[in-house]
Design brief:
heterodimer; A: mainly beta; 6-stranded mixed β-sheet; 4-stranded antiparallel β-sheet; about 0% helix; B: mainly beta; 7-stranded mixed β-sheet
């Protein structure tokens, strides 16, 4: 069965620090990969996605992620975090081919940015 | 219109009540989803509708009854819920088939409290 692992439960950073959140998935086939963000009290928003092509994808708000197929990883990065980046971050995977209902979420990483 | 609209935003109901959650989108998405999210947990899939037909039921108790009256609307009928059903209920939608890789659009959710 597919699974998604996010290594960090809670990350605490100071403003301007660099961020990297780990995500690994287990599925042998072709996958689509997503990072979603959930700000306190708000709904899930898509940060970025990968489905093919350049393994380094850029998303909104200065976030980027790199797909490393050999490591089954899709880590999220940001060079310099801001207090407003405080949120819960979810990595998600779905199998290529568009089969519905198979968006699998990781457990999430809570990011707290200290001003 | 690039939103998924959910109503109500908050709902408090007794264990003998009957209530409904509503979800609406006008993006032409033909897949719609209900997710349940408990505090500090990732969203968990409950139901999937594709082309207005129920395609996935993740072994959800019958006290939750989904309905998809048309391609833009998705309802979740609630009856005889338990306190442990208190959670954030999220609706999402997406394209199917060749465009499913574009990701899901989530609504803001309905915060349900069962007393």
């Amino acid at each position: 069965a597919q699974s998604v692992s996010q290594h960090n439960h809670h990350v605490i950073l100071s403003e301007a620090a660099s961020l990297e959140l780990g995500c690994n998935y287990s599925y042998g086939g072709t996958v689509n990969l997503f990072w979603y963000v959930q700000y306190p009290g708000q709904h899930l928003q898509l940060l970025l996605k990968y489905f093919s092509g350049d393994p380094l994808v850029k998303g909104i708000k200065g976030f980027e992620a790199e797909f490393i197929k050999s490591k089954f990883s899709f880590n999220l990065r940001k060079p310099s975090v801001q207090w407003s980046d405080t949120a819960e971050y979810f990595c998600a995977v779905s199998r290529y081919g568009g089969s519905q209902g198979n968006l699998i979420f990781g457990k999430g990483t809570k990011l707290s940015v200290k001003p | 219109d690039t939103e998924v609209t959910q109503t109500p935003k908050h709902l408090v109901m007794g264990m003998t009540n009957k209530k409904s959650l509503k979800c609406e989108q006008h993006m032409g998405h033909r897949a719609m989803y209900w997710y349940k999210q408990k505090a500090k947990k990732p969203p968990e899939l409950m139901f999937v509708y594709s082309y207005e037909k129920l395609s996935i039921n993740e072994s959800v108790p019958s006290r939750f009854s989904p309905e998809c009256p048309n391609s833009s609307l998705l309802n979740l009928h609630l009856h005889a819920l338990q306190p442990e059903d208190s959670a954030l209920y999220l609706c999402a939608s997406s394209h199917l088939d060749g465009r499913a890789y574009e990701g899901y659009t989530f609504g803001s959710g309905t915060r349900l409290t069962v007393v």
